[in-house]
Design a protein that fits this description.
Blueprint: E1 2-5, E2 8-14, E3 20-26, E4 32-34, E5 37-39, E6 42-48, H1 51-73
Antiparallel strand pairs: 1-2, 2-3, 3-6, 4-5
């Protein structure tokens, strides 16, 4: 299942019984740039006990990306 958040698609998936992960991708499919390295998508976080926890963690990563990008622009 995919959740939309602030221009990103968050795909949550179960990688084992009770082991939830999230994959982040830009909604426009442009690559994510982290320290100058381009990624088509990124899996983030730990193995969370449920889908909602994995999505919440992914949203925190997106918020950090935004803050970092904003501080780089200054």
């Amino acid at each position: 299942m995919t959740t939309l958040y602030d221009g990103f698609d968050i795909e949550s998936f179960e990688a084992g019984k009770g082991l939830w992960h999230a994959r982040i991708r830009r909604s426009d499919f442009s690559p994510l740039a982290i320290d100058g390295v381009l990624f088509p998508a990124m899996e983030v976080g730990l193995a969370w006990p449920d889908r909602d926890a994995a999505i919440a963690d992914a949203k925190q990563h997106i918020d950090r990306f935004r803050r970092r990008a904003d501080s780089d622009d200054e």
